[in-house]
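Exercise 7. Predict the structure of Receptor-like protein 15 from Quercus suber.
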Amino acid sequence: FKSLLKLSKLKHLDLGRNQFDIRILRSLGALLTLKSLKLDYNLMEGHLYDIDFAVLYTLELLDMSYNVLNGIVPPSIRALSSLKSLVLEGNELNGSLPTQGTLPSCLYNLTSLQMLDLYENYFRGNISSYLIAGLTSLKHIDLGYNLFDGFSFNSFANLCKLEFLEFLVISNCSLNKLSNQIPTFLFHQHSLRLLDLSYSMLKGQFPAWLFENNTRLEYVTLNDNSLSGNFHLPLCLNFTYWMDVSNNQLNGQLQGNIGYMVPNILNLKLSNNTLSGSLPSSIGNMSLLSAFSVSFNNFFGEVPKELLAGCSKLMIMELSNNNFDGHLLSSDFNLTMLQALIINDNLFSGAMSNELSQWPYQSFLDVSNNNMSGKIPTWICNHTSFSSLLLGNNYFEGEIVCETAPIMNLDISHNLLLGSLPSWSSNDLQYLNLKENKYSGSIPEAFLNFSEIVTLDISDNKLSGIIPTAIGKLSSLRILLLRGNRLNGTIPTQLCQLTNISLMDLSRNFFSGTLPHCFQHIVSDETLPFGDIFSVHVGTLTYRDESVHDSERFERQSKYIEVNFVTKYGLRSYKGSILRYMSGLDFSCNNLTGAIPLKLGQLQGIHALNLSHNQFTSSIPNTFSNLTELESLDLSHNGLSGEIPPQLIKLTFLAVFSVAYNNLSGRTPDMKAQFGTFNASSYEGNPLLCVVLPLEKNCTNRYDSPPTPTQSLDASDEKWYKVDQAVFFISFSVTFIMFFLGVTTVLYINPHWRLQCFNLVEDCMYSCYFSVTITLRK
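Solution. The predicted structure, encoded as tokens:
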């Protein structure tokens, strides 16, 4: 490196993607002719305040993106009067002197600056009007993903002087705190090529004027705002090839000539709005279209044949969650470049054509929740490019005749398939869902020849016989669901070899005998490298312009694996990353006998345990007090005897507890912690059990006649401030019903609010759960 510093006439130096630290900046002063310096993706950590950039006064490009720089932008950077490009994205910079947290005032001197990229830092406050307006040579401004507080476009009053501005990225900047509209300074811009205002809480009508003023716009992302009105483009946009207005409140029908308005579009995303009507046939004129998404709208009717014939370069097409109908997957379907077709939750019907086997690049097909029928085509057994095939909730029938299954994710649940389970082998299959069909007979050992299987769900069929011992070879298995069949015999000890299991459900079968004593090791430990194993990659679309960030350059899509598991008295659905944290065992509704194994108390990471509706005897193991993560414990409808271990009050996460209908005796645990929340239904059906309820002073047998209450000597002793209970409950009920109907009506009228409300509740639930779990495990 020292010899490099002797190159006194060096003009361009690229040290990106190495492991240099911040000391490298102090050793470059000898390069007096340097014009371009790239130090992106290194290990530079710390602040820049004491770095003297004045010695590099000839610099025209300075790129220190994606390091760990923090603190302020140093005042010495103002000496770089020739600087044209300043790229500091992906760091932890947070302010300037004298006011911490705002954009650095030293930038005002950089009058030659054409590119200012401060994306993904920690800058706060408002933009100073004199700062940006003085940089009249700016072509590229990227301030996205900072911490601006009430980002004010009033301070951008002079931005009309930025007549060369081509790239503007101010995503995730809370633009609506002082203005609910698209910023008015854009009225004065006529040279924009890229505009990103996504995730900025913008409101108001869709800005058609934006396209009138900037006819050369190439890349427009207005997604995840609250824009409303019709999506109507005012004129032909020959240069636009990327447009994303998803997750807004746009409504009405698409204009009939939309295919002629953006003839060169590559990516058009209109999903998660309230658009309606049928798809215009003019979409077939978008001959370059690679990604098309209109999912989660109110479209109906058939997909126009012009789209299927004219958009021959389509790679990703999303039509899910609408009301489309017709025979989409017929022999006329000829999108041979397609990689991902997502048409679930519609009204499509008909059979799957054998022509689909000719798609050389097809990797993801989701036609679940439609009215598809016919037989599963045999070509799926030999299609080597498929990663996911989701056919659930349709009317497919017959048998699957395959020797191999070169698919990673196969879901044919909720159909009319019958016969024996297919005997195939696969080194690729990771997720197999055949639940709620009409499969019968025994489970063949050949069916379990899946070396990489992660999720196996064959629940709610008519399978009989025993569980094959070969199941112990599925070393990667994490979820095993066999409930609702006619399986019998004893539970094989080979299940104890599945040391990565997180969910196992053998309920509602005819298993007998004792529960194996080796299950203490089966629930997987949280330290195992789960990764993102419960989501399936759909497709990737690459954007060609290198000046756009990685977050905008790629469109990544994934679908989450979803399983159902009974916990807390209900069949609940779990999907995505939550499956990494959920663990449980369900052996309920069988004929299991003997004592509950003490070693089950060693499953410290388990969240749900259900042994109800069996014939277990003996006592409840004291070791259950070690199940510190347990949320649901159901031991009801057995023959358990003895006392309820008082140590169970240590289970601070326990939300559901039932020992009803056993032969328990003695006193129930003290009404402390979670046991203070359980009512009499948790203990009913135990005649010898002494139940202590929160409002009772003495432990009494609930089946004895209660003592006659003593009458008050004087009715006038009642306090004047006592509340009439009947009046209180009636008024409370009326108020609650009115409030509930009001909220329900609002959510019914406004589908966008309804979707946002459901997403918010789900996000809050998962966030709270993960935060509490991670905090407690530390």
